[in-house]
Amino acid sequence: MSTLPKIGFIGLGIMGSPMSENLLKAGYDVTGYTLEQPKIDRLVAAGGKGASSIAEAVKDADVIITMVPASPQVEAIAYGPDGILENARKGALLIDMSSITPQTSVDLGKAGAEKGLRVLDAPVSGGEAGAIEAVLSIMVGGSQEDFDAAKPVLEALGKTIVLCGPHGSGQTVKAANQLIVAVNIQACAEAVVFLEKSGVDLTAALDVLNGGLAGSTVLTRKKDNFLNRDFAPGFRIDLHHKDMGIVTDAARNVGAALPVGAVVAQLVASLRAQGDGGLDHSALLRAVERLSGQPVQS
């Protein structure tokens, strides 16, 4: 019998499925639940267990991990008679790895404590590729004691795992991360269109740029998306639109100016309004093509 904690995993989407599978590879007993049966079947095929409800997934879990799109979904799975807080056993560790508002994480931490649960907010960066490769950057909010308890589990999912402060701190750092990523993608997209319209060999140009100060993880990860116009979602524009709303609201609350971030937030919103919300965020390239009078490549 394994002495590792039993894990209940809620949310088996683009990120959650490979994350749950990496936990299985690390030897954990994982019971998963999500709204789509084929995704539960995928977990079962990988060696996990499927649940028919949130309550079933969490009732025997020592650690509960949630990975859902936004604050409303976190609240929907956490609260109410069928939610996590009412059905998890006392002493269980709830690690919410969704990207949500800092205040939602603060509220969840308080509500969880009232039910005898330990709670961490632990959003991630690295996208689908990082999830598959188990090299995510994980920014955590909560107590040192709970972070120490969670770290062995998180080490099966990521490489850079840092406690950033009390509840909500992980989400604040994630908001900053999404600001940096969006601005970086936008800059790369503008450079791609500039280079193409100038008649430069794009592959050669991106290779040399990525070897210098202009290089970045974003360019490394998204270079092929730009070159091939492959915008299959690793991280959807819809979700980045949500995250830009989080960072702009949070910045306004603390009195921080985000002049470039505000512009990029509007560009993300515009791309979404044009029907591209389901595409990868590297599809910001399509917005630059439109603005530049260049045919949008599919």
TrEMBL record:
Record domain 6-phosphogluconate dehydrogenase NADP-binding: where: 6-165
Pfam families noted in UniProt: NAD_binding_11, NAD_binding_2
The EC number(s) this enzyme carries: 1.1.1.60
A GO term for molecular function: 2-hydroxy-3-oxopropionate reductase activity
Start and end residues of each 3-hydroxyisobutyrate dehydrogenase-like NAD-binding domain: 168-287
Signal peptide (from-to): none
Keywords: NAD, Oxidoreductase
Family according to the record: Belongs to the HIBADH-related family.
NCBIfam families per the UniProt record, alphabetical: tartro_sem_red (TIGR01505)
PANTHER family the record matches: 3-HYDROXYISOBUTYRATE DEHYDROGENASE-LIKE 1, MITOCHONDRIAL-RELATED
Name listed for the protein in its UniProt record: 2-hydroxy-3-oxopropionate reductase
